[in-house]
Specification:
Length: 149
């Protein structure tokens, strides 16, 4: 992870420019950004820990608490809600015991409810980690999630 952050840092004239990619690398490697991870990023970029924590806490894509191996970001905003997102949320609860903001007992999934992920025309939609899934329904969401162990 530190080698990857060093490589990214070398591409920017100022190490602050590498902050977001460095946090992304750390989270990808560790699953979430612990205080130790934030310190490691701060040391690697020669920046104050407060700057790293402030940036990490600003963006919703960074996790500051332990999370499941796979992060589901389900949109329940208007287009998705009209197209059945709430029943998908119920399905996630019924099938996986997964509540908004929660993690499955086996650590396989965490669920975050999103306001809009830019797929209103192909709603309902969700992200699983960095993978985009659209036109969801009660059948294909279960098939999709089976691919994530
Ligand atoms: S409302 Fe769900 S993607 Fe826009």
């Amino acid at each position: 992870m530190l080698k990857e952050i060093e490589d990214i840092k070398a591409k920017y004239p100022d190490s602050r420019g590498a902050l977001l990619p460095a946090l992304y690398i750390a989270q990808k490697e560790l699953g979430w950004l612990s205080l130790d991870a934030i310190k490691a990023v701060a040391d690697a970029l020669n920046l104050p820990e407060a700057d790293i924590r402030g940036t990490a806490s600003f963006y919703s894509m960074f996790r500051l608490k332990p999370a499941g191996r796979n992060l589901i970001q389900l949109c329940t905003n208007v287009s998705c809600m009209i197209s059945g997102a709430e029943s998908l949320q119920d399905l996630l609860n019924d099938r996986y015991g997964l509540l908004a903001g929660g993690t499955t007992g086996d650590g396989r999934f965490s669920l975050v409810i999103m306001e809009c992920i830019g797929a209103c025309g192909t709603a309902p939609a969700m992200l699983v980690n960095t993978d985009f899934h659209e036109n969801l329904n009660g059948h294909n969401i279960a098939e999709i999630l089976e691919k994530y162990k």
